[in-house]
């Protein structure tokens, strides 16, 4: 095995209009802990050593459109969140402040939008 310096994914960084608000949303949704929260930057530590989340201020933030049409702001990344019970997990996401997307392309996935409009998918293994 070659030594490539040990690269490993530690954090996923997401642009946000209010980093702390989005950090608190995902910490609540995923059972994590907000570890940094200031006007420019917020971080969330997730249970079990999962890859962390960070939220960086984007002063001219434009939320993505799901699904995007020609000329509309496209999402650059979205989170895939595996769940045990799709309906209960979707209800929890809504209670935390998410919105259910109008377009739902699959029966075994629920596309939600976080408070800043980023799509994320709740999915159940079939």
Automatic annotation (TrEMBL):
<dbReference type="InterPro" id="IPR041581">
    <property type="entry name" value="Glyoxalase_6"/>
</dbReference>
<dbReference type="Pfam" id="PF18029">
    <property type="entry name" value="Glyoxalase_6"/>
</dbReference>
<feature type="domain" description="Glyoxalase-like">
    <location>
        <begin position="13"/>
        <end position="122"/>
    </location>
</feature>
<dbReference type="InterPro" id="IPR029068">
    <property type="entry name" value="Glyas_Bleomycin-R_OHBP_Dase"/>
</dbReference>
<protein>
    <submittedName>
        <fullName>VOC family protein</fullName>
    </submittedName>
</protein>
